[in-house]
Amino acid sequence: MEINKVYINEETYPRLLKEIQKPPDPLYYIGNLRLAERTCVAVVGSRRASGYGCGNAEALGKKLAARGASVVSGMAKGIDSCAHRGALSAKWQGSKGSTIAVLGCGIDVCYPPSNQKLRNEIAGSGLIVSEYPPGTQPARYMFPRRNRIISGLSVATVVVQAPGSSGALITAEMAAEQGRAVYAVPGNIDSAYNLGSNKLICDGAVPLVILEDLLTDLGLGTEAAKEFEKNLGEEELRLVEILAKEGEMTQEQLCAASGRPASLVSGMVTILEMKGVICMYLGKIFIAKS
């Protein structure tokens, strides 16, 4: 597995990560760095999770990846691992779903060691990133620090399940400071497993009661919207798929990504907007919410 690194002044450096305070420079990575340019969603939670939490994390990871999003997490035991596995079990355009693991150790170190198989799978079809150079062994202070990268790569952070003291709550706090959306899955109020995630909702996080709501909020489409896409022409569907991957684009970027002339793209954008499939705001094109 080849270890690479990218510097903040390079064009391939993840766009959203540039916007945070103290972005890692360089960023070490293994795998497909382009996955960081898709719509990225952090799915995080406790290492000690209940069956309820693990089931939700896996289902959420699978749903997001099946719509072309990249699921970002920390490859820890519990919720993180379930989110990664859910994403990898999904299919998107004939390949495995996209997931990104952010490590709190050197890029070549597997922590926890029990996740070696998962790490290999992510490295093979997804993306692993770290701010720490090869050979750096994990230390307690590294994990809270890496959480800013998890939230920094992502347009939204979902806390699936967390007790009163959890690294996932740090990730949520950093996401809010970075101006990103924060969601939390409600849980049984009598269970210590859910104390932190329930408190996040009290403090203003969006309660994620129906998983489909998150997809709609992020412009990843509902099942009804997917059914509607069957009626689109081949060229129109190609533009919609590109937008679903990237999240937002200018018309010039859409021309470059599709390889189609500006006159053709302009006409299709107008038609798709009239059909209610896409919308435009401040020069950017988005998938329309249902």
**Spatial gap, N to C terminus:** 41 Å
- Would you report the number of β strands? 13
Order of helices and strands: EEEHEHEEEHEHEHEHEHHHHHEE
Strand order of the largest sheet: 1-2-8-7-4-3-9-10-11
Radius of gyration: 19 Å
Unreliable residue runs: none
Overall domain count: 2
The coarse silhouette is: globular
* Count of DSSP H/I helices: 11
Describe the main β-sheet briefly: 9 strands, mixed
Mean of pLDDT: 90
Q: What level of helicity do the residues show? A: 25-40%
Question: What name is given to the CATH topology of the largest domain?
Answer: Rossmann fold
Strand content: 15-25%
What would CATH call the architecture of the largest domain? Answer: 3-Layer(aba) Sandwich
**Highest-level CATH class of the largest domain:** Alpha Beta
SS-based class? alpha/beta
Oligomer: single chain
Brief sketch in words of this structure:
40% of the residues lie in helices and 18% in strands. It is built from eleven helices and 13 strands. The protein is globular and about 55 Å long.
